[in-house]
């Protein structure tokens, strides 16, 4: 009777533990879903492709100065760090979440786009490219902070080339546009972050080598223009993506065929333009 009387409280405690684990699991799932919005532009491979192409086009001086800051690690090693720290739970990097994108409604022309861009208070991808560049140039910035600024600059210049990071606030850059990709439920932003790139099955070094084949004259043309020009370039492509990918689209080989050239263009342009920014900094 004594043993039987203890089973009641034991079972009760067991049920509470199971319920708490279930609640905790649901909280973790919700937290993950919330943190996934505006996450991981280009994914691991895309950012590394851009960084690798940029490294191939560094001037001798820029290469030398960056080596002093980064050691022997290549740019691609650090290219995804600003996304990795989104998992940090201390709140130290919370303010950096808005640095990865800039929201712009469809604009009729560059003049309207430029005015809207400069009217935004920030911080955003646009403001931070300039802010981080200034920090790197400033001799009073500590070595640690200069390195962090450089790592963020490498990353968000890659974000700039992902068209949906110059997308629309109403759908969080395509995060709220539901699609299927080869039958898998996902969203438009995720397709452009990584799925299109990963579908090609290249390593980042392979992809960088395959894409980085432009002549010096072509490279100079791609690197011409201002930061605002480059953002408008991505913005125009984002508008085409929106127009051709409505909610509930079923995407597969035809979508790859339609947009693969655009995706590869953006990886290449992102790398070459990052190289220009770094060469001008150093």
TrEMBL record:
Q: Which GO biological process categories is it annotated with?
A: DNA catabolic process
* A Pfam short name: S1-P1_nuclease
According to the UniProt entry, its GO molecular function terms are:
endonuclease activity; hydrolase activity, acting on ester bonds; metal ion binding; nucleic acid binding
- Lineage top rank: taxon: Bacteria
**SUPFAM superfamilies reported for this sequence:** Phospholipase C/P1 nuclease (SSF48537)
Q: Which keywords does this chain's UniProt record carry?
A: Disulfide bond, Endonuclease, Glycoprotein, Hydrolase, Membrane, Metal-binding, Nuclease, Transmembrane, Transmembrane helix
Q: Which InterPro entries match?
A: PLipase_C/P1_nuclease_dom_sf, S1/P1nuclease
Cleaved signal peptide residues: none
The protein's name in its UniProt record: S1/P1 Nuclease
Record organism: Chryseobacterium culicis
């Amino acid at each position: 009777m004594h043993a039987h009387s203890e089973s009641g409280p034991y079972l009760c405690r067991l049920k509470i533990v199971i319920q708490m684990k279930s609640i905790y699991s649901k909280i973790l799932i919700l937290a993950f879903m919330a943190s996934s919005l505006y996450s991981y532009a280009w994914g691991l491979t895309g950012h590394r492709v851009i960084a690798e192409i940029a490294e191939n086009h560094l001037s001798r001086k820029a290469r030398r100065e960056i080596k002093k800051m980064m050691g022997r690690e290549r740019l691609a090693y650090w290219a995804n760090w600003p996304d990795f720290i989104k998992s940090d739970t201390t709140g130290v990097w919370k303010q950096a979440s808005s640095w990865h994108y800039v929201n712009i409604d469809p604009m009729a022309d560059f003049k309207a786009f430029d005015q809207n861009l400069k009217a935004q208070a920030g911080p955003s991808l646009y403001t931070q490219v300039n802010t981080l560049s200034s920090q790197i140039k400033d001799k009073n910035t500590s070595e640690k902070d200069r390195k962090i600024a450089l790592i963020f600059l490498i990353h968000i210049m890659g974000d700039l080339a992902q068209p949906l990071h110059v997308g629309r606030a109403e759908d969080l850059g395509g995060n709220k546009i539901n699609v299927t990709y080869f039958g898998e439920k996902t969203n438009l932003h995720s397709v452009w972050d990584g799925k299109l790139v990963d579908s090609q099955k290249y390593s980042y070094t392979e992809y960088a080598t395959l894409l980085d084949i432009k002549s010096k004259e072509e490279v100079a043309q791609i690197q011409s223009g201002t930061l605002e020009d480059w953002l408008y370039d991505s913005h125009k492509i984002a508008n085409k993506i929106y127009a051709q990918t409505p909610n509930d689209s079923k995407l597969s080989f035809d979508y790859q065929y339609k947009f693969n050239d655009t995706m590869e263009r953006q990886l290449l342009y992102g790398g070459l333009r990052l190289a220009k920014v770094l060469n001008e900094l150093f």
